[in-house]
Structures are given as structure tokens and as C-alpha cells.
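PROTEIN DESIGN WORKSHEET
SECTION A - STRUCTURE
LENGTH: 392
C-ALPHA CELLS:
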């Protein structure tokens, strides 16, 4: 394993400790400050869609200038600064502004970081490298969710602070931690690449392979059904609130979120290595099928204990597709890793806004369970589309 890939993994680990202290409590915080299903859909989708415009240009510029680290550092810094203002939000609309700014930082750093991982990896080991990075990223998520859980438990048991104030304390602690991720990034050395002064954006975008374009069609279609994780968390929380109080249901849901991340972390590297051996296409198809099965479970079953298995399946789904799709995007792009990965992230992120808005509308105006029927239908259709269109 290249030392710089290891350092990038440490950066992601620390960043996700911060981000995943926020993620499991964000739906509760949004509802506490006046949000509902559509608000969650907007917040879950608009940030990624806005940042999507940034991603393709960030990837392209990192190719053109022959450097990745400046884009990676500035993206992480912007996200950290925006997180400082999360605990100050008094209305869900404030989060609707702050979350996109945080996601823009992610949009700046992600294609350049993934391109650097691709640059530093041998093609025969690329799935393993991306799987390792996903594993480090998700290990941070487990630690972050556990920290959030411990803070809420401690303050809930040993203080008289109201619920909303406890959530604000967790958000502030997460913001401070995010700045520590910048330290190991300072020691990352990027692979020197040629500065391409004649690297024309539109020409190079058109020059991406036919196989790559077919792959983008499939992943973008699937993203239309891969709505925000916040709907899964909120559905479970609503179920547990029938038997427990708000604080207790939040604690249980954070526990389920940790289960999701444990399965994501454990299986990311071995599944990435498996994709190196048997091909990416089979892994991606299996991932889409697991997502469809997860959504079907959320649609059909409303028994609290079953959520343990469903969140485990949800984590397994991400282990199958996150690293593998990135590795295949790099495989199909020759040496234009930044542009290709930026394009991949852009089209996926553009689909997330309508996906989450549709999910929010179904949630508010029909039934929360039908939101997951929508995800199931898109997931099954994506399986057949992947069989037909993806070529390695």
C-alpha cells in the first residue's frame, strides 16, 4: 500500500469522524428546528447537486494543472469552516444554506483526491486501493457515530440540558474535529504529472470512451433512486418513537447507523479486491440488487428488530458500489482520471437532488413507506440496465 494513499485514508478517517458525528443526528436536528420530509429531501439533495457543478471542473483542472493537493486541501478546509456554523442554525433553512457550502468543499476535493489515488495505484490493485480508502473513511464514520452516541448518553444522563442543546454541542464538537484532518494532508506527496496547457475541457470531455459514457448512464439512473440516507434514519426513528421517547429513539438510531458503517467498513477492502479479480461489473450489479432488497425491506417490514438487518444490508450495499464504481470510472478513462472521476461524481450528484426531492414529496404527501417502494423499483431497473450497458 502506497504511503500517500495511507495518509489520504487517515485524512478521510478524521474527516468522517467529524461528518458522521453530524450525519445520524442531522435528521433529528432538522425536524427540531422546523423541517419535514421535503426539507430533508432538499437538504439531502441540493448540496450534492450544487457541488456537482464544481466536481467536473475540479477534476478537469487537477488534470490540466498536473496537481491534485491544492484542490484536496482547499476542499477540506471549506467544509471544516462551514461546519462551525451548523450548531448556530435556528431554522431548517439555515442548514439548507450551510449544507451546500459544506458539500461544495466535498465537490472541490473529491475528484482530485480520487484521481490522486488512481494515479498512485497500479491498475491491477486499483480496486483494493479504493476499497482501502472507503474502509478508512467508513471506520471514521463508526468512530464519529460512537462519539455522538457517547456525548448524547453522557449529557442525557448527567445534565438537565434540553434535547436541542445536546444536538448543538455534538455539532460543535464535530466541527472542531474536522480541522485536525488537515494535518496529515500536509505530508501527502502527489505524483508529478505533466502540465497540459492545451488540455481543452470540451474536447477532452467528448474524448471519454463510449464504455465510460454507457457506465455514466447506468450510475446516473441508479442515483435517481439512491435518495438521502436521512430517510432511512428517520423511518427507523419514527418506528422506535412508538415505544420509546425522542432521546431514546435517537440513541437507538445512532446504534443502527453504527451497524451500517461497521458493515460498510469491514467489507469495502475485500470487495474492492474481489472486483480486481472477477471484474467490477458483477460487483456493481450485486450492489444494486442489495439496495433494492434493502428498500423492499423498509417498504414491507415495520418491526423494530428487523432494522438491525436492514441497516447491515444498507452498509453492505455501499461496500459493493462506492469504491468499485470509482475504480471502474478510472479504468475506463485512460489517464484522464481527474476529469473522468469528476464527471462520474457530477452526474451522480446531479441525480441526487431530484431523487431526494421525489422521496420527500412521496414521504409528505403519500406515505413514508412508499418512498422505499420508489427506491426498490429504481434499484431493480438499474440491475437490468447495468447488465445491458456496462462493459469493462
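SECTION B - SEQUENCE
RESIDUE ASSIGNMENT:
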Amino acid at each position: 500500500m502506497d504511503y500517500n494513499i495511507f495518509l489520504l485514508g487517515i485524512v478521510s478517517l478524521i474527516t468522517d469522524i467529524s461528518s458522521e458525528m453530524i450525519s445520524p443526528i442531522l435528521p433529528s436536528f432538522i425536524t427540531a428546528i422546523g423541517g419535514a420530509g421535503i426539507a430533508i429531501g432538499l437538504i439531502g439533495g441540493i448540496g450534492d447537486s450544487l457541488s456537482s457543478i464544481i466536481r467536473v471542473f475540479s477534476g478537469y483542472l487537477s488534470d490540466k494543472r498536473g496537481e491534485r493537493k491544492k484542490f484536496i486541501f482547499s476542499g477540506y478546509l471549506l467544509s471544516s469552516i462551514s461546519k462551525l456554523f451548523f450548531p448556530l442554525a435556528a431554522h431548517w433553512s439555515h442548514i439548507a444554506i450551510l449544507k451546500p457550502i459544506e458539500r461544495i468543499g466535498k465537490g472541490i476535493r473529491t475528484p482530485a483526491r480520487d484521481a490522486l489515488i488512481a494515479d498512485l495505484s497500479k491498475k491491477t490493485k486499483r480496486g483494493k486501493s479504493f476499497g482501502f480508502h472507503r474502509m478508512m473513511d467508513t471506520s471514521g464514520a463508526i468512530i464519529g457515530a460512537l462519539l455522538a452516541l457517547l456525548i448524547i448518553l453522557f449529557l442525557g444522563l448527567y445534565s438537565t440540558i434540553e434535547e436541542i442543546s445536546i444536538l448543538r454541542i455534538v455539532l460543535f464538537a464535530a466541527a472542531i474535529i474536522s480541522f485536525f484532518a488537515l494535518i496529515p494532508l500536509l505530508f501527502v506527496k502527489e505524483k508529478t504529472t505533466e502540465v497540459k496547457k492545451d488540455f481543452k475541457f470540451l474536447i477532452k470531455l467528448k474524448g471519454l470512451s463510449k464504455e465510460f459514457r454507457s457506465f455514466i448512464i447506468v450510475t446516473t439512473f441508479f442515483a435517481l433512486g439512491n435518495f438521502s440516507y436521512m430517510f432511512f434514519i428517520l423511518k427507523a426513528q419514527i418506528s422506535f418513537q412508538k415505544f420509546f421517547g425522542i432521546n431514546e429513539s435517537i440513541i437507538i438510531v445512532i446504534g443502527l447507523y453504527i451497524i451500517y458503517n461497521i458493515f460498510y467498513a469491514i467489507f469495502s477492502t475485500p470487495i474492492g479486491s474481489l472486483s480486481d479479480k472477477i471484474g467490477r461489473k458483477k460487483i456493481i450489479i450485486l450492489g444494486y440488487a442489495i439496495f433494492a432488497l434493502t428498500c423492499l425491506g423498509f417498504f414491507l417490514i415495520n418491526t423494530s428488530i428487523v432494522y438491525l438487518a436492514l441497516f447491515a444490508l444498507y452498509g453492505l450495499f455501499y461496500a459493493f458500489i462506492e469504491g468499485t464504481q470509482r475504480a471502474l470510472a478510472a479504468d475506463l478513462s485512460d489517464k484522464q482520471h481527474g476529469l473522468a472521476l469528476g464527471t462520474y461524481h457530477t452526474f451522480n450528484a446531479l441525480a441526487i437532488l431530484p431523487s431526494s426531492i421525489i422521496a420527500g414529496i412521496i414521504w409528505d404527501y403519500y406515505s413514508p413507506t412508499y418512498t422505499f417502494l420508489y427506491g426498490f423499483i429504481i434499484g431493480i431497473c438499474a440491475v437490468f440496465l447495468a447488465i445491458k450497458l456496462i462493459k469493462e
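SECTION C - NOTES
The mean pLDDT is 84.
Residues 3-186+207-389 form a domain with the Growth Hormone; Chain: A; fold (CATH 1.20.1250.20).
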